[in-house]
């Protein structure tokens, strides 16, 4: 996914993201509510502050690529995060809340139990879980950097965690299911307005060149904490102090 030929192919199929819409002459975040399991957003994360500082600089370089200014709509760098498990969003979330007024409370209670049980299953010698940037990744409606585990143990720990989530009977009963395979990535921006005369060949070349800087520089990302977070759109993720969280390394 980080090879030049992948960029050439992916750029042919990019689409405008419905998560951002034109409004009063600007492209703004559209309502897209739901819940997710993520690492703490960059603005609240001290462990990975150096990592996020590099990513913020990289996002600015991405936005300077020779293309229309509305092509890539950046997400706030304060909201950078790694999603460990997508939960529920948009119409599915609205339907769940409508059919079950207790849905959100039940969801939080369920995760409090899951996290407590998972914490007890961890040994005292739990080692740090490190992933690292592999390179730039172009998705159908977004662009970001993808991460790979530093070792097999770091991979297995995250896969085990995801399995614990998606195979939980109470969560399944609440309508939470796995929709995607795990492609570990941190989103830098979404595709906004794609003009009909976009030079896709030039764009793929620019992306490939921008990706070169990761080849000799793969900064580490420590996955140490997972939190249940709520969002109204793709620009911010919030939680209350008493909402469940899990320290996993």
The CATH topology turns out to be Cyclic Phosphodiesterase, Chain: A
Q: Count of helical segments?
A: 7
Low-pLDDT segments: none
- State the end-to-end distance: 28 Å
Whole-angstrom Rg: 19 Å
Question: Would you write up a description of this structure?
Answer:
The chain has 249 residues and is α+β, with helices and mostly antiparallel strands. The protein has a single domain (15-126, 153-195, 225-247), classed as Cyclic Phosphodiesterase, Chain: A (Alpha-Beta Complex). The protein is 34% helix and 25% strand. The chain is built from 7 helices and 11 strands. The protein has helices at residues 4-11, 49-63, 90-99, 103-121, 152-166, 169-173, 200-211; strands at residues 20-23, 26-29, 34-38, 72-74, 83-89, 129-138, 142-149, 185-191, 220-223, 225-231, 245-247. The strands form 3 sheets. Strands 4-8-7-6-9 form a 5-stranded antiparallel β-sheet. A 4-stranded antiparallel β-sheet has the order 5-3-10-11. A two-stranded antiparallel ribbon has the order 1-2. A hairpin with a 3-residue loop joins β6 and β7 (142-149). α1 packs antiparallel against α7. The longest helix has 19 residues, at 103-121. The protein is globular, with a radius of gyration of 19 Å. The model has no long low-confidence stretch (mean pLDDT 94).
């Amino acid at each position: 996914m980080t090879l030049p030929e992948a960029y050439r192919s992916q750029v042919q199929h990019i689409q405008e993201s419905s998560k951002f819409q034109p409004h009063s002459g600007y492209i703004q975040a559209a309502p897209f509510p739901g819940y997710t399991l993520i690492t703490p957003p960059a603005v609240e994360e001290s462990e990975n502050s150096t990592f996020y500082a590099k990513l913020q600089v990289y996002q600015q370089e991405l936005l300077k690529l020779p293309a229309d200014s509305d092509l890539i709509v950046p997400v706030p760098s304060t909201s950078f995060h790694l999603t460990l498990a997508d939960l529920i969003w948009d119409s599915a979330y609205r339907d769940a809340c409508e059919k079950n007024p207790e849905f959100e409370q039940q969801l939080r209670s369920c995760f409090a139990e899951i996290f407590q049980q998972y914490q007890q299953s961890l040994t005292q010698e739990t080692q740090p879980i490190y992933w690292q940037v592999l390179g730039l990744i172009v998705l159908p409606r977004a662009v970001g950097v993808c991460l790979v585990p530093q070792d097999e143990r770091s991979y297995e720990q995250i896969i085990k965690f995801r399995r614990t989530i998606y195979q939980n009977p109470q969560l399944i009963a609440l309508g939470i299911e796995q929709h995607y395979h795990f492609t570990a990535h941190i989103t830098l921006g979404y595709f906004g307005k794609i003009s009909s005369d976009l030079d896709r060949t030039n764009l793929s070349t620019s992306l490939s060149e921008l990706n070169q800087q990761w080849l000799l520089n793969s900064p580490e990302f420590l996955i140490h904490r997972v939190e249940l977070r709520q969002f109204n759109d793709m620009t911010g993720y919030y939680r209350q102090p008493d909402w469940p969280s899990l320290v996993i390394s």
